[in-house]
Specification:
By secondary structure, the protein is mainly α. Helices cover 68% and strands 0% of the residues.
């Protein structure tokens, strides 16, 4: 007779599978783990797995551990039947999301995007304040692309002493250096050769996170429509505060087409998740930007603008004629 393996042993096994090098193996492990979440034992095993993944993530550089911790945490919070327990689990996820919102690995940031929807759907509305502020700050701080001086590009004025400051170099050497730099062929991906979609760091994924937060709040409202408090309704409105709306309007005109697309999807999610009067209040601010998006030269942006326009017009009801 063999005793059943302990939670720690099983968590170690799950952790190894969820950190596998192949995507297909990680996906298979996650789906199998999700199928065991019905009973209390399965939830406890998943909780132990999350702790093991987070410990592994803190002790190394594996992005798979960070991403899998978010995926499993999301699955556990969504599968939880007790609202109070689900709120506690979602609250614990907020700190992990804040830590990895601007993770250098894009696949971890995509896991944050999906986890944000779960946190908004199952967590307390007031607990979203820290996450919302962090997301808005990330969008604001990454809105402008930081140009880096690289070989093959002209140096800045400060670097070449062209503003009249005395150079430490001999005049001839300085002139030769300037001519060499001026005639150097620009490298692809730098200077004017840099694509408009490159170098924006986590701007797109932070916008996607905001979108999923709006979708999650709409899910929570549908789940608890009869039990929603006045405080919760007020917290929902803070997701579309003045600073956020201003950043969204700018993002809808951004030079990066993926950012423009993401911004329109945020607007669609806000419209779908807001009350008709709140959507109507957004009309004067966003109608001109939606109209411009419908004529964008990129089809993905036009499609996202179409979805946002449809969501907006559906929720303003008979007053839609005011914005035609």
């Amino acid at each position: 007779h063999h005793s059943p393996p302990s939670f720690a042993t099983m968590a170690s096994t799950w952790t190894s599978r969820l950190c596998a090098s192949r995507q297909i193996d990680r996906d298979a492990a996650l789906e199998e783990l999700r199928s065991t979440l019905e009973g209390r034992e399965g939830m406890a095993r998943a909780d132990a797995t999350v702790r093991a993944l987070l410990e592994r993530a803190r002790g190394g550089t594996e992005w798979t551990a960070r991403a899998s911790a978010l995926h499993v945490s999301s699955a556990v919070a969504m599968a939880e039947h007790d609202d109070d327990v689900a709120q506690e689990k979602a609250q614990k996820m907020v700190d992990v999301l804040l830590e990895h919102l601007e993770d250098p690995e894009p696949r971890v940031r995509e896991a944050v995007v999906e986890a944000a929807r779960v946190v908004a759907a199952r967590g307390r509305a007031e607990a979203m304040g820290d996450l919302r502020r962090a997301v808005v700050r990330s969008i604001r701080d990454n809105f402008e692309r930081k140009e880096e001086t690289k070989e093959g590009t002209l140096p800045s004025c400060a670097e070449t002493d062209v503003q009249g400051e005395e150079s430490d170099e001999d005049d001839d050497e300085w002139l030769v250096g300037m001519l060499r730099r001026a005639n150097a062929a620009p490298k692809p991906g730098t200077g004017t050769f840099r694509p408009s979609t490159e170098g924006w760091r986590c701007l797109e994924t932070s916008l996607k996170t905001l979108q999923k937060m709006a979708e999650g709040q709409a899910m929570r409202r549908r789940r608890r429509s009869d039990a929603e408090t006045k405080e919760e309704a007020e917290w929902d409105r803070t997701l579309a505060d003045e600073e956020t709306l201003s950043l969204l309007a700018k993002a809808m005109l951004h030079e990066n087409r993926f950012v423009r697309e993401a911004a329109h999807r945020v607007v669609a999610a806000l419209c779908d998740g807001s009350r008709p009067d709140d959507v109507y209040a957004l009309g004067d601010a966003f109608a001109p930007f939606l109209a411009r998006g419908l004529g964008d030269n990129w089809s993905q942006v036009r499609f996202a603008a179409s979805a946002a326009t449809r969501a907006f017009l559906m929720h303003v009801g008979d007053r839609k004629i005011e914005f035609f």
